[in-house]
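[job 4417] fold queue: 2 targets
>>> target A
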Amino acid sequence: MSRFAKLAVATVAATLLLIGLGGLVRATGSGLGCPDWPGCYHRVLPPAGDANAWIEHIHRYWASVVVGLLVWLAVEARRSGQPPAVRRVTLFGLVPFVLTEALLGALVVWIKLHWLSVSLHLTLALSILGLATWVAIDAMRREGFLPVPAARPGSALLSRLAPIIAGLAFVEMIVGSMVTGFNAGMAYGTFPSFNGRAVPRFNKGFVWGQSLHVGHRFIAFTLLGLIAVLLVQSLRPDVDPVVRRAVQLATGLVVVQIFLGALNVWWALRAWSVVPHMVVGASLWVALLVAAVRARWQAAAATGVGPERISVGAG
């Protein structure tokens, strides 16, 4: 595997870890562990005994690592002569996105964890993860580490359905962030019921928070059903095996994700369920994105159009 492909895969892994660290920051109430930015109490290092400050600062340190990796990826894309679409995505997509993400991280601190800034922060992080995933699987395909999608008719429905489901997984993550932002994670203290009721009762004055909580659960179960449909479709013999494996992985992840969501309620938002919930959700987004991209490539191959013609940013 070339240096560029290894770097792309490492960047995906590093971004996933960054999202997990962000979940740890939120789960432990460490978002304002360092009340200033970029320092911590106007120091380079946080106070030795301040656990919240260290959790927040480690998140910032790892964010700087991800910034460095994405800049390096853009440089390596140009140096190694990657296709124009890849060079555009890395230089004009990933680099501006991650620099904006760093500024959003500062804004989150400056405006004291306002829900909108926190949700935008996660939105951009997931966008970076998605683009980096595309770069990685495209490089692995071109270098022969993933098979070239064969021209088979079974991908037509999958190529339309998988992107919609991947998009819904993205929305589910953002709604989950908003649930946290409105302190609505425990709006209902039982699962799968809503405080013992099959139909939720909304309290005056907290309708918005409760609605987000209910919507988050509803989207999760909708995802479960849609991914089950995707799984059945992927079992056809003429479907790209990479799509099939990605959908199988997504099926397992969505089940685990719902179980972790239940633990969040049952354990009253403990960090050891909240953080895996965030990481598994981001991993589900990656798995569905891989399935969507590969299904699109296979459908395009069936019409005589190669992946290079339909890659992100291609003309």
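>>> target B
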Amino acid sequence: MPIKKLINLLKRYYPDVTCALNYSTPEELLIATILSAQCTDKRVNIVTDKLFKKYQIPQDLALADIKEIEKDIKSTGFYKNKAKNLKACCQVLVAKYEAKVVPDIEVLKNLAGVGRKTANVVLGECFQIAEGIVVDTHVKRLANRLGLTASDNPIIIERDLMRQVPKKHWIIFSHWLIHHGRGPCKARKPHCEDCFLKKDCPSSTF
């Protein structure tokens, strides 16, 4: 399917998609995105609803007892490693960056628990900086199904998408695919019969 046609269809059917994670500051979104690894956004929002009321982010988390953080985020999975990363990340923000997220991808990637995906989420959502395209499990799956990549490597997938998708759509493109992946293009059994891309998708079974 021509990328222009795909973008026009996604834009028409998903005109108002936004980030599914709840946050009020770049620092909160950074924490929420770290927690979202191997966890649903719905579960993260339940956890952060309490977490952001309990702690000032990042100051309080930088000082909090690691066991207390583990208890607070346990239901997100991999909580020991996530707690360690959250505390370390917040300590650096407080010590080096005046407790603020710096809109620089290299600075962000050097924070504990932050990779390119998380950095792209924060830069795009909070600062409207398009350094790349967020590749999560939905984007990975749909990019392959739509024939936009032949790779399972998130770095290669991002490069393939960046090469095809105009830069002005980089931030919103992942939201479109994530929303579509949560809708008809499900992981185990896609509902191709209900999909507005069924006539053009190379993976359509309908």
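[job 4417] complete. Note on B: The two ends are 16 Å apart (CA to CA).
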